[in-house]
Amino acid sequence: MNEFELIARLAGAAPTNASTIVGPGDDCAVIDLQAPDQYLLFKTDATVEGVHFTDAATPEEIGHKALGRCLSDVAAMAGTPTHALVTLGLPEGFDVGFVEKIYHGMSALALRYQVAIVGGETTLNPGQMFISVAVLGTVPKGKCVLRSGAKVGDAIFVTGELGGSLAGKHLNFEPRLKEAQWLAANYSIHAMIDVSDGLAGDLRHILKSSGVGAELLSSAIPISRAARLGKQRDRSAKPPLESALTDGEDFELLFTAASHEAVSLLDAWKKQFPDLPLGCIGRITAESGLRIRDKKGAQPLAADGYVHFQKS
Amino acid sequence: MNEFELIARLAGAAPTNASTIVGPGDDCAVIDLQAPDQYLLFKTDATVEGVHFTDAATPEEIGHKALGRCLSDVAAMAGTPTHALVTLGLPEGFDVGFVEKIYHGMSALALRYQVAIVGGETTLNPGQMFISVAVLGTVPKGKCVLRSGAKVGDAIFVTGELGGSLAGKHLNFEPRLKEAQWLAANYSIHAMIDVSDGLAGDLRHILKSSGVGAELLSSAIPISRAARLGKQRDRSAKPPLESALTDGEDFELLFTAASHEAVSLLDAWKKQFPDLPLGCIGRITAESGLRIRDKKGAQPLAADGYVHFQKS
């Protein structure tokens, strides 16, 4: 357990109350504050210079990412974001024009999803820019999807293509809000998360919360062009499959549903979202742990996502 | 207009939507999300090492202040805080035990007001600790008190004693939640704010939002013992009255109500909160600007709070 995991454990032991449906440990907190048909979703994400973006990012991209990370978390609960607050920690002598463009990037994304930016704060943070966004959202009471609902036999799905997001997608991804809302409205989605830590890491979050295991099908993992190009350009880079399993910041949806719904779901998806691939990549198992299968058989997936296939 | 004011203007021009009752510019955002009788309150505050606290603060005090600042903002709307998210930006090699004590300070305060800490995030922030707390709360629809409701002729009230909070109170203040709720439940409070920028600065926020002016009575300003002691110990320190008008971070309530209610309110307050002074310190005027009156007459109060009284 590293220091950051220790802190997460502290946060998990924090005070709760009767209106808290889901506290720490899912993509958003889920809260019941007397609205008859809906829960509230509550989430913060920090975006820090040198950690989440570098000099290579435009200010508009920084703003997009800072808000988009939170919206992606709301999507992972099948919710609708409604309001955001923006906290900016800025070094002394910051460039007002640059910060204005960060707001433009955020506002463009907020407008697209009717999210109101209702305030926030600007303060000094010597050394680097620190952006913390807090988002409020809603979800119909029967349609909120948690990490904890995966069932043995479920099919596992992922949207889009994975890996290599540092080449650009981590700054200009589209949060999968309308896709998640459509899924929850039309199918019984058992568990869902957004891919921020990498497919393997985020699937492990679902498995841990649900008390199950999983087997992925190697040939079904959707590998992005960026992950393939990365390896072509730099032979010392991760193999594309490992990149797809572990890179993170894809901001795609990873979810499970009963396997007998898989064909109908894939068909309906193709009509609804013809431009966004949806892949069925494996199944939930009673046996705990995460395995990956190729034509030679199933192998455990290492914690770092490295695939220990035997050489052919 | 300095850089930070420019940023505030950018935030003020951000996207809004139909469920936003009050956006940027009050102590909290006010949101209507379908709960029949209540609005939601939504607020973030950042607490930064070297800006809002120094080495002299204990970790418990840092945690108390980080959450307490948000709770004080909820109090300023006469609301009830319900849920919080905690974002910690920590330098590399931080002390886990120190951070644990920050959580203890926050949790002790949260428990006292039944606030659930429902998650958050820990991330790297080289250089110094950066704590951003987001708080959600509720307020009965008819009882939410804004900055904008002050009326000509209103009496101006302030709780507690002001000035010199850097000597300690800024780290261990009690958010005036039950006092504000009692005020809104029993009286028609026209405008309210918590004293964070200093009495003069925060009263100016009320005046600007309400389109009115004010006259303070010099002898009625409640000056704290810390402000008086500060001047006794250091002759170059601000005069105690100036300290009370401008120091800030008192986290007391500053509010206005119809002057014909003043006597009844002061009487009832003394019975309800015998240990916390409430002072009537001036009145709202049609003439714009902020003036302060002593036995020699009324003088404009300078932007920096300096009181230009003639020498006697």
List the main descriptive attributes of the protein structure presented here:
homodimer; 312 residues; alpha+beta; 60s Ribosomal Protein L30, Chain: A; Phosphoribosyl-aminoimidazole Synthetase, Chain A, domain 2; 7-stranded mixed sheet; 6-stranded mixed sheet; globular
Describe what is shown at a glance.
Two copies of one chain form a homodimer. With 312 residues, chain A is α+β, with helices and mostly antiparallel strands. Chain A contains nine helices and 13 strands.
Would you spell out the secondary-structure blueprint of this structure?
The structure is a homodimer of 312-residue chains.
Chain A: H1 3-12, E1 20-22, E2 29-31, E3 38-48, H2 59-76, E4 80-90, H3 96-112, E5 116-124, E6 130-140, E7 155-159, H4 169-172, H5 177-186, E8 189-194, H6 199-210, E9 213-217, H7 225-233, H8 240-246, E10 253-257, H9 262-272, E11 278-285, E12 290-294, E13 297-300
Parallel strand pairs in A: 4-5, 9-12
Antiparallel strand pairs in A: 1-2, 2-3, 3-6, 4-6, 7-10, 7-11, 8-10, 9-11, 12-13
Helix pairs in contact in A: 2-3, 2-5, 7-8
Which residues of chain A sit in consecutive blocks of at least 5 with pLDDT less than 50?
none
Task: Output the CATH homologous superfamily of the largest domain in chain A.
Answer: PurM-like C-terminal domain
Q: Percent of residues of chain A in beta strands?
A: 25-35%
The total domain count of chain A is 2
CATH class of the largest domain in chain A: Alpha Beta
State the end-to-end CA separation of chain A. 36 Å
Shape assignment of chain A: globular
The main pleated sheet of chain A reads as:
7 strands, mixed
Largest interface: chains, residues each: A-B, 72 and 72 residues
Q: Return Rg of chain A in Å.
A: 20 Å
**SSE arrangement of chain A, N to C:** HEEEHEHEEEHHEHEHHEHEEE
User: At CATH's second level, what is the architecture of the largest domain in chain A?
Assistant: Alpha-Beta Complex
- DSSP strand count of chain A: 13
Here the CATH topology of the largest domain in chain A equals Phosphoribosyl-aminoimidazole Synthetase, Chain A, domain 2
Find the structural class of chain A using helix and strand composition: alpha+beta
- Assembly state of the chains shown: homodimer
Give the spatial strand order of the biggest sheet of chain A. Answer: 8-10-7-11-9-12-13
Helix content of chain A: 25-40%
Residue-averaged pLDDT of chain A: 93
